[in-house]
Each structure stands twice: as structure tokens, then as C-alpha cells.
Amino acid sequence: MIYSMTGFGKSERIFGSTSISVEMRSVNNRFLDLSWKSPRSFVLKENEVREFLKRKLDRGKITVSLTIQSPDVNLASFKIDHSVFQQYASALREAAEKAGIAQDVRLEHLLQYNDIFVSNNDAEAQEALWKNILTCIDEALDEMNRMRRSEGTELANDFIHRLETIETRLDKITELSKTAVTEELEKLRERVKLLLERTDFDPQRLDMELAILADKVDITEELVRFRSHNKMFRSLVEGKETQVGRKLNFIVQEMGRETNTIGSKSSQSEVIHTVVSIKEELEKIREQIQNVE
Question: Cα torsion at 136, 142, 143, 144 (round to 10°)?
């Protein structure tokens, strides 16, 4: 079973009078990279969210967006963060001086910045809210993984189809290689005739020519190894292991090496054309693997 690197999940729940919404997106990335978007009061929870995601994810660029809405919110439940308040006031005064504006900074100028207010709720209520948020994150993660698994199934079906296409072309090359040996032996007979006509004929030279021919036209080992790679690739795609992207990528590289060797050993145009078509299938597989976990 394989998983796609791209997915989306969303979860919503109500806690008292508070509405919680979590959206989670995943795209391809070599490592696990989190982008945590939340209200100011939960910004420092990023590391906890990262550790939470590590339990179920190996890699990927993960964006988690938290939205909280509460119709009963009033100023009594908030207090001013005086440090942030002073930073805004200083920044506005400096900007006014540089712009040559004589007007001083007024309170209404500062109240438009939401992050000068921090929650005045007690720690117990905040912790209860956070537990509900974690539940939402877990549900969004599960939904995202279901989508990744569904896309992974589609990728697996595409891989298997391409492997079957490659197997058919390997069968064709196997048949063509049988006639290739006959053709090369005929060419060698002509060379032997020419050698026998020469007074300086060297039997050792004939043995060397035969050895070169055997190595040049015999692609049996390459075909056996290629088919072995195909079986291993398919077993990973259809197996229970989930994080197989790197293994699949390595196997495709080995397939590419065998394909190049087969092409270099053949002088038949039909074999060469078939090798090119196999390379095209391998390139499509290689591109798709980049989106496999």
C-alpha cells in the first residue's frame, strides 16, 4: 500500500460556545516541514503540533490552519499585552516623525491591532480548549491520510499498468534477441572465411572473436535482472509497507541501468526502438514516484 504526498483534511467541532476549525494540507517535501497558522494565543503550540504529526507522518510540507470563533467573546475576557502595545506605539510615532506628521499617536490608532489583546481565560479553560483543538487536528490528519491513501491507490494502479507494459516489451526483446544471435553468428562466419584465406591465420584470434560476440549479443542476464526488479517493485506497491518511495526510486534507477545495457548490446533497430519505449515508461514512473511517501 502506498501513500501520495498530496492530501487535504478538515475537521470542525464545537466546544461550549467556541467553534473550532482545522484545515490540513500536505505537499511533497524531502523532510517533515510544518507551517502552523493559528490565533496569537496558540502560536507557541507549534512544536507540540509538530511532535504530534511525527507519530503518523514521515515527510512532507504540512500546512495546518487553526480558526477559532466565539460569539460570546467580550473585552472582559481579554487583557492588553503592554509590551506589544508599546511596540506599536513606538513604531507609529517613528513613522509619523519620518513622514513629517505632527499628529501624535492616539488610542484609537492602536486599538485596530488585534494582537495587542491576549486571552484572560484561566489556564484550565485554555487547556480544555487545546485538548479539543488537538482532537480536531487528529481528525483532520486522518481525513488527509485517507485522501493520500486513495491517491496512492491510483498511483499503484498506474505503476502496475506500466510494469505490465514493460514486461510485454521485455518479452518482445527476448524473442528478437534469439534472431540477433543467429545474425551475429552469420557475420562471424564471414569473418572466419576471410581469416582462413589469410596465411597468417591465428586460431587464438578466432577464440577472441567468439568471446567478444558472446558478450556482445547475450542479454540474458540483463533481462533476468530487469524482471527481478519488476517483481520487487510490484511487491512493494502491492504490499503492506507504506513508506516505500525511496525504495521504489532506487529500483527504477536499477531498471534504467539494465535498459541502457540492453540497448548498448543490441544492433537491431527494432530492439533499440523497444528500449526507447521502455525508457519512456520508466521516466513516467520516476516522475510519479516523487509524489510517493
Answer: 110
